[in-house]
Design a protein that fits this description.
The protein is an alpha+beta fold. It contains 16 helices and ten strands.
Length: 408
């Protein structure tokens, strides 16, 4: 289907002697002709990034166009004037045909030629849209069945995925979740609607020769079953894939597995769900790298919110200096109490570190030389980082006179 559209674009460009480009309705590149010495920097950017910047062409206005029109030259954006013809089929806006015409020299019959070609492109895009919808629906059904707890359902889906050459038989499997990270209001303003497009997980997987991806995608989230080649370790490759997806935009990306075969996919799905719960903002979390958080993340949020905290921990969490003391304590405990390594990680002098640790003991009543107190502090800090601040009581006791033993 794309080859048909490319042929239409190339033939139109040859007739006009001008560069032609086709985007879909979201301004993602569908096809582009060769240049005829008329490539402005904005077009070069579009070809490199495989999309047109909405701010370059006033996308909102374009969606309301009913026929050919011009986008004026914009020197600030290094954009030359170009003809835009909306691509429609059966009343649906499916894309745009762009023709560079810096000086407005195109004749009426040439504009008519572009309009006729846009109609042919529209029919091809409509066919592709229907085929894509069928494929997406099938992929969603297969992914849901592969992650089912019912063995018969899972086995049947696995056979179909392999028969359709969507996954390879043998090798390890992993489950990957992608969710759009919640936008934080800036300056008291509500988050802007929309956002970056969901990464093409299947394409990113194909860029890594050892991976195959079967993806169920929605506008704001995706679930993928990732397969590796027989005899190859999937863990490192799927971590790299997750990192590439995380770098594509404000996404929360989580990986469950690897598991040895389709029987392990329900467990990998739960692992990915737990890993995802550890991300409160954009980032990547892999079950295999969670360590203690793999258990702590399963601690119900509501139980933590209602937890009766030992008074020492409650005082520490509520202390005005908590934004400094808590990261210091977390780094100290993560470094197994090694002062030199902790100071280097925090980039502070050891004298500063010792002062902060002393202050932590004074506020909390904990002894950082006591294994039980260190365990209590570490657990509380990790749960705080995973689930947010609990309902710390406001009537906690004043700091104990004996800072060594008043953890409770």
């Amino acid at each position: 289907m794309s080859a048909d559209i490319q042929d239409l674009v190339d033939r139109l460009a040859a007739r006009l002697g001008r560069a032609v480009l086709v985007d879909d309705r979201d301004l993602r590149l569908v096809a582009a002709s060769r240049d005829f010495g008329d490539a402005d920097p904005a077009r070069v950017w579009s070809l490199l990034h495989r999309r047109t910047r909405p701010e370059d062409v006033r996308h909102d206005e374009l969606t309301r166009m009913r026929g050919p029109g011009y986008v004026p030259e914009n020197p600030a954006l290094e954009l030359w004037q170009r003809l835009c013809v909306p691509v429609r089929c059966q009343g649906l806006l499916l894309g745009f045909v762009w023709v560079t015409d810096r000086h407005g020299e195109m004749a009426a019959e040439q504009v008519a030629d572009v309009t006729a070609t846009a109609a042919e492109v529209g029919a091809a895009l409509h066919d592709r849209l229907l085929a894509g919808e069928r494929d997406r629906a099938l992929h969603r059904e297969l992914v849901e069945a592969l992650l089912s707890r019912d063995a018969a359902t899972r086995s049947e889906a696995w056979e179909e995925a392999v028969d359709r050459d969507l996954l390879d038989e043998g090798g390890q499997l992993a489950v990957l979740f992608v969710r759009r990270a919640a936008a934080s209001p800036e300056g008291g303003q509500p988050p802007k609607p929309g956002g970056p497009f969901l990464p093409d997980i299947a394409r990113l997987a194909r860029d890594r020769a050892s991976l195959r991806a079967l993806t169920a995608a929605w506008p704001r989230r995706a679930v993928a079953v990732i397969g590796g080649r027989r005899g190859e370790d999937l863990d490192e490759a799927v971590r790299a894939l997750a990192g590439a997806i995380g770098a594509a935009g404000p996404w929360r990306v989580a990986v469950g597995g690897p598991v040895p075969g389709p029987a392990g996919l329900p467990a990998a799905r739960r692992q990915a769900d737990i890993a995802l719960s550890t991300l409160r903002a954009a980032g990547v979390a892999c079950w295999a790298g969670l360590s203690a958080d793999a258990l702590l993340a399963q601690f119900p949020r509501q139980l933590w919110a209602d937890a009766l905290l030992p008074a020492g921990i409650a005082r520490l969490l509520a202390d005005p200096s908590a934004p400094v003391l808590l990261p210091t304590l977390s780094a100290f405990l993560d470094c197994a109490g090694e002062a030199q390594r902790t100071a280097a990680q925090l980039r502070v002098h050891r004298t500063t570190l010792y002062y902060r640790l002393s202050r932590i003991e004074q506020v909390s009543g904990l002894s950082l030389r006591d294994g039980r107190d260190r365990l209590l502090a570490h657990l509380a800090l990790r749960l705080h980082q995973l689930h947010g601040a609990p309902a710390v009581p406001t009537d906690v006791e004043e700091a104990a006179e004996n800072p060594q033993r008043d953890a409770g």
